[in-house]
Amino acid sequence: MRRTGGVLLVGLAVVAAGVALAMLRVNPYVYFAGYVILQYVVIATAWNILGGYAGYVNFGTPAFFALGAYTAVFLIQSTRAPLPVLILAGGLVSGLLGLGIGYLTLRLRGVFFSIATLALSIVLQTMIINWEYVGGSRGLSVIRPSGPPFGGYVTFLFTVMVLLSVVAVTVARFIERSWVGRGLAALRDNEEAAECMGVPTLRLKLFATTVSGFLLGVAGAPFPYYVTFVEPTSAFNLDYAVNALAMPMIGGTTSWVGPVIGAVLLGTAQQLATVTISSEMNLFIVGVVLVAFVVLAPEGILGLVRRLRGR
Amino acid sequence: MKRHWKQGLWNCALIGALVGVFVLASGGVFVARGADPIRIGFGMALTGGLSANGKPALLAVQIWKDDVNKRGGLLGRPVELVYYDDQTNPATVPGIYAKLLDVDKVDLIISGYGTNLIAPLMPIAIERKLTIMGMFGLANNEKYQYQNYFQIQPAGPDPQTSTAIGFFELAGKQNPRPQTVAIVGADAEYPQNALVGARELIKKFGFKTVYDKTYPPSTVDYTPIVRSIKATNADIVFVASYPPDSVGMLRAAQEVGLQPKIFGGGMVGLQFTSVMTSMGPMLNGIVNYDFWAPEATMLAFPGIKEFLKEYQARAEKAGVDPLGYYLPPYSYSLVQILGQAVEATQSLDQQKLADHIRATEFNTLVGKVKFGKNGEWAKGRTLMVQYQKVHGTGIDQFRGPGKKVVLYPEEFKSGAIIYPYAAAKN
Amino acid sequence: MVAGLLLGGFYAAVSLGISLIFGLLDIANIAQPAFVILGSYAAYVMNSSFGLDPILTGLLFTPAFYVLGAVVYRVYYASFERRGEESLRGLVFFFGVLFIIEVSLSLKYGVDYRLVEAAYIGKSIDVGGVGIAFRLLVPCLVGLAMTLALHLFLSRTFYGRAIMAVSQDRLALRLMGANPVQIKTIAFGVGIAAASLAGALLITIAPVVPSTDRDYIGRMFAITVLGGMGSIGGALAAAVILGVTESLMATFFGPSWSLAVSFGILLVALAVRPAGLFGR
């Protein structure tokens, strides 16, 4: 009880800090860059729920993210729904996708799940390309609503992202500490043994994919308002897949802290690189760092820190 | 209990440290700058799918900057370019322009290359009441109808039909008049727009559509598509494609033996030197859109010859299209107009510049330019050219006139069409 | 339809490496398409600098790719298989490798489409009223030859049979005196060598760009799964099925859906019959 209360307090404090930062109206660039980094915190945390806790690698992050974004686009076009509705809807739809994919493939081995997620992105992208209502291959321009008093709609989106990050991390932490987390860890280490011990592996896996999908969709839903022009190639960008993988792997997959570290580090580095060095070198570095970490430091920065502290 | 508490503290400390690093690192981004030069900021596709056009565009803008600075700059101050790679990804655009405007504090902005990269810039510019010079985007302003947007692509007041109108008009003028049309295009932004325009024009000119399909951009083999088209025996074949599909289509057409009476239309890529030299004689007879060709009628514009000489000298080192006959003259003209507006109004005030640009007819590297409704050219000027007498794969044959004959519009016509398509094939 | 069959032969060539590595060795090497593209670029460079026929280049580079494959496998083995933590990190490792290869190619050669010139591109022969493009025919024939060669290798030679054995029972193999790690290294190397030739075939058929590999990830795995893990003949059959399906979709329903169809096949196959058509 006390612990939960403590967590909520910290979460609220962070959100308040975010709002304060927004009201301060510092250089607007901070909000643009900050939005992207926080978006990655959500994405990395979401990915890790399935990848780190359960051990199932999802290569189809773009599919879930883009589905959240396109659900929002659909609702914007049809009903001009307010942002909270968009976020919830995006999350629900992506969550359902997670459930569906999980149901189809999780009775097979992990590697088949991963391949299926690769295929998922492409299939979904093809479907969106052929759907004219949300812009199809041409893309769609989205007009931002006249926003709340923050001096700029993006500043508002920034605070929304702060809130969403806190929610995502809280959910991850909650799962990690609960019996769900322990069950997932058990099946990650040895699925057959876990089954034999009575862990409801299928249900846990479905739970993980659904929650992971839900959070990814939530991350994607505000995207149309941020970028104001949504088109399939950039919404389904492979960068999301690589970053969703690299950030938790680099930060450390066993705890909620890892994805946050990875997202802040890698996200910041990428934002800086966009406005300094050539961007493809930046991608190359991500790839190399990822492989280096996977080979040399599979437990990520958290693992390194733990080793340093002699645990 | 205790350990959890300490663990939590450790975690927070770790994250706090990282956030601190982030703040400090970004501090490096906020370096104060001097106020003397006039700074023009933009994002540009230097990597990613559109970089093949983005890089030559950048080179052209850089050449303009050097030309202007040689003459003493703008308003007596040197011109400086501040640009970042947008990676052909619209998601980077808001961040890039936020940095340009709020951190680098540039004086003027121009857009990146391509419809998708201009689109996210619109709300930002509208919010801050900026003048945008748009570099090759289709119908970006249709939804917003923003008064201070100007587009250098010579599409004219009806962007969707601008590519195809010359093609179908030429078809309609031939004797005997062709009757049936097959249209095909990639599932992507530009081709879809072009196809919409084509359908409109087919109705207007009274042709009959016998094939109307699209294909995914990742198609490997175009043989089934070309075969289906051949089976319809269409007189006119209009293709709206991007470079890999243009190449694939032409190759498949050659293998299958597709020979309509008039073939081409909206194929992107045939304008690139590397494609022209590798396709060689396969191009003969194709009637396709273009923006500029080294024909006598187009070489008469003031300054174009000098520009091309300078561009071609720098192109090889920069690793871009060696001839530069497609977009670079327009990229140059875009900043040229902006520069002329600054000098004419003697100010950097966004509204004054926009008002001046809207009202003036400019003399540029690509001829006279006047903007009309929604910032598009008051009168469209997409050319229709036909490849004639191309032999072998040498690059030099494309340097001068004769291989890409301009057929449309009338005022720039430099030769006669070879009709039907098969006649150009020997 | 004919084009579909020819395409199928080509797809078989492309998937041979994965059939070996994933089908037999059970290593989910999702970087395979990147190696294929690497082969394509090797062919391109040789073709544009020296005018070498792409297929010749493909064959020439086979040993180099073999060595590359062996090295990659050793790293993989040392980092993952030995520690027994294959699945998660191994997958991520290969994904990282895929990414690095793709981005390196982009950095070095840019994102322009690359083509090759060869005597037989652009020509076709007429067989019973149906024009067959050499551009498709030659890769198809080479693909069939490769499949046959691999099949013979696996069934007739010592190392080939050792590979089949190691995929079935490592312990027994050890007891028989062969070193499973060495066998697997050879197999992986062969798989990557196959990618070299496949890449040359790919660039013969169509222009190539570094991100082309993503289109093939799904196709390769679809073929291997559909054909049955470990069955080379099955992979060939599956490749032809895929090629024909894509072609038919393109002709009748419009090409927009053909790519998605191949992935659809994969998903359905996984759900309904994961062992594939000829699976063990």
Query: Can you give the mean pLDDT of chain B?
Result: 86
Q: Tell me the distance between the termini of chain A.
A: 28 Å
Number of strands of chain B: 14
Show the largest interface. Answer: A-B, 50 and 50 residues
Task: Give the strand order, joined by hyphens, for the main sheet of chain B.
Answer: 7-6-8-9-10-13-14
Gap from first CA to last CA of chain B: 88 Å
**Which word captures the global form of chain B?**
globular
Q: Multimeric state of these chains?
A: heterotrimer
The poorly predicted ranges of chain A are none
Number of helices of chain A: 15
**Main structural class of chain B:** alpha/beta
Query: Which series of helices and strands of chain A comes N to C?
Result: HHHHHEHHHHHEHHHHH
Order of helices and strands of chain B: HEHEHEHHEEHEHEHEHEHEHHHEEEE
Secondary-structure map:
The complex is a heterotrimer of chains A (311), B (426) and C (280).
Chain A: H1 2-24, H2 28-53, H3 61-79, H4 83-105, H5 110-129, E1 140-141, H6 153-177, H7 179-189, H8 191-196, H9 201-220, H10 223-227, E2 229-230, H11 232-235, H12 238-251, H13 257-274, H14 279-296, H15 300-308
Antiparallel strand pairs in A: 1-2
Helix pairs in contact in A: 1-6, 2-6, 2-9, 2-12, 2-13, 3-4, 3-5, 3-9, 4-9, 6-7, 7-9, 12-13, 12-14, 12-15, 13-14
Chain B: H1 2-27, E1 38-44, H2 51-70, E2 79-85, H3 93-103, E3 108-113, H4 115-118, H5 121-128, E4 132-135, E5 149-151, H6 159-173, E6 180-186, H7 189-205, E7 208-215, H8 223-232, E8 236-241, H9 243-256, E9 262-267, H10 273-279, E10 287-290, H11 304-318, H12 328-345, H13 350-359, E11 361-364, E12 367-370, E13 383-387, E14 404-408
Parallel strand pairs in B: 1-2, 1-3, 3-4, 4-5, 6-7, 6-8, 8-9, 9-10
Antiparallel strand pairs in B: 10-13, 11-12, 13-14
Chain C: H1 2-24, H2 32-50, H3 54-81, H4 86-109, E1 124-127, E2 130-133, H5 134-156, H6 158-168, H7 170-175, H8 180-205, H9 213-227, H10 232-253, H11 258-272
